[in-house]
Amino acid sequence: MARRVGIYTRISRDDEGDALGVARQQQDCERLADLRSWQAVKVYEDNDVSAFKRNVVRDEFELMLKDLRAGLIDGIVAYDLDRLARQPRDLERLIEIYDERPRLEFATVTNDVNIGTPDGRTMARIMVAFANKSSHDASRRIKRKHLELAQQGKDSGGPAPYGWRKDDRTKVDPHAAKAIREAQREILAASEPSARGGRNRAWATRARGPSAWPTTTSSTS
Q1: Which of 41, 59, 110, 138 is most buried, judged by most C-beta within 10 A?
Q2: Among 173, 178, 153, which Cα is nearest to 161's?
Q3: What dihedral angle (degrees, nearest 10) is formed by the CA atoms of 61, 64, 69, 72?
Q4: Residue 109 contacts residue 79 (beta carbons within 8 Å)
Q5: pLDDT tops 80 at residue 52
Q6: What is residue 110's three-state secondary structure?
């Protein structure tokens, strides 16, 4: 009977929201599972989710660990080890489960590291340590660059804030501007909050599509 494995895919940033990167990872992982004569029974996808930031919870990664420990899957296939872990503590959580279930399968597309073996775990720990350092270094450089841009009064990049054009962040989006002005008039008129929220969402949806408006009314990030 074929071993039942889960495929884990992740990309830190997907500004366009098209999930093309994780789709490519899934295809490559499925081919590797076929080569190993394993049955890929579930895909755990964390798109646009960091594995480096400590305050980020990767829902699909957590579900995968839970399923792995419960015996719902017999192993993991990922594109690369750094898709699974960029923090040593996450790798250790994974290794702990492999300790509990010695016959679990593990494979990555880009290298031949098997955390089911002592040598493989040693190599995995080294690789994750270097991936963690790489993320630290990149974060430090990006923060310094953003500080420089801010001091010069320049745009630091990233997705255009609501109200500005996607193709030119220095110019106002006329459709979004209309929605903002209408929302402002409603607020100043002290309309019913629940009704106002519904209208604001409708205006934003017309202006830029359903994904342009947050699903909550306040931000805690």
Answers
A1: 41
A2: 173
A3: 180
A4: yes
A5: yes
A6: coil
